[in-house]
Write a structure and sequence with these properties.
single chain; mainly alpha; MetI-like fold
C-alpha cells in the first residue's frame, strides 16, 4: 500500500484531479473509508477472500511440505523423473491452462462456486514443493536418526523434527501464497458471477463506472484490501528474519 493510495483515499472527488496535484489532502475526506465499506457488502467480500486465502494457504503448506519431504528424504525408483516432471509444469504459463481449467470446472458443475478458487491448492504447486525440497535437503540427518533411535516413526519425525526446523521457509512461502490468493483477480473474475461469492479484488471493480469513478472510495477499498497482507507480513517477519540469520550462520 503506497502513500499515493492513502493520499487519494483521503481526497474529495473534486481534489483527485486537482492541478497541481495535492499530496496532503485538504480537506481530508475521512468519510471515504466509511462510504467505501457501506457502498458495497464489504463484509461478504472480505469473508469470501479470507476463507479462500486461509484454506488455500493451509493446503499449500500441508501438501507442499509433505511432498517435499518425500522428495528430499526418501529414495525410490523414478524419484528424479517425477521431480523433473513436476518442475516442467512451471514452464506452462497460467494463461495457457486457464481456459481448459475453466471448462473442466464448468463441466463438473462447480462453476460460480468457491471450489475452483481453493480446491486446486490441495494438490500442491511445483514452486512451493521445489523450494521446500531444496530447503529440507540442507537439514541435518543426524536429528532424524536420533529420533528414529528414540522410536519415532516417519510421520512423527516429519511433524516433530522436520517442520519445526523448516518453519522459517514455510513462513516465507506461506506469505507468498497468502498474497497470491488474496490479490488474485483474473481467475475469480472468470469463475464467479454471483455478487455474494465475489472476492475483494473483483468487488473493487464495482467502484468503476462507464463514465465516472469515485477514485477516493476506490483507493479506500484498495487500502482495506492491502491491510490484511500487511498484518500477515508483520506477524511472520520474525520467522523470516530468523530463517535468513540461521542460513547465514550455517553458510
Amino acid at each position: 500500500m503506497s502513500l499515493s493510495t492513502v493520499s487519494t483515499a483521503l481526497k474529495t472527488p473534486q481534489n483527485v484531479f486537482k492541478s497541481p496535484p495535492q499530496f496532503i489532502p485538504h480537506p481530508v475526506a475521512w468519510d471515504n473509508f466509511a462510504k467505501a465499506w457501506t457502498a458495497l457488502p464489504f463484509t461478504t467480500f472480505v469473508g469470501n477472500t479470507l476463507f479462500i486465502t486461509i484454506v488455500a494457504t493451509t493446503a499449500q503448506v500441508l501438501t507442499g511440505s509433505l511432498v517435499a519431504y518425500g522428495f528430499a528424504r526418501f529414495q525410490f525408483r523414478g524419484r528424479n523423473a517425477l521431480f523433473y516432471l513436476m518442475l516442467s509444469t512451471m514452464m506452462l504459463p497460467k494463461q495457457v491452462t486457464m481456459i481448459p481449467s475453466f471448462m473442466i470446472w464448468r463441466s463438473v458443475g462447480l462453476y460460480n462456486t468457491l471450489c475452483p478458487l481453493w480446491l486446486p491448492a490441495w494438490f500442491g504447486t511445483a514452486f512451493f514443493i521445489f523450494l521446500m525440497t531444496q530447503h529440507m535437503r540442507t537439514l541435518p540427518r543426524e536429528l532424524e536418526e536420533a529420533a528414529q533411535i528414540d522410536g519415532a516413526g516417519t510421520f512423527k519425525i516429519f511433524t516433530m523434527v522436520i517442520l519445526p526446523l523448516a518453519r522459517g521457509a514455510i513462513a516465507t512461502l506461506a506469505i507468498f501464497t497468502f498474497l497470491n490468493f488474496w490479490n488474485e483477480f483474473t481467475w475469480p473474475y472468470l469463475t464467479i458471477n454471483d455478487a455474494s461469492r465475489m472476492t475483494l479484488p473483483v468487488a473493487l471493480i464495482q467502484f468503476k463506472g462507464d463514465y465516472w469513478s469515485n477514485y477516493g472510495q476506490l483507493m479506500a477499498g484498495a487500502a482495506f484490501s492491502a491491510l490484511p497482507a500487511i498484518i500477515v507480513f508483520l506477524m511472520a517477519q520474525r520467522l523470516i528474519i530468523r530463517s535468513i540469520t540461521l542460513t547465514g550462520i550455517k553458510g
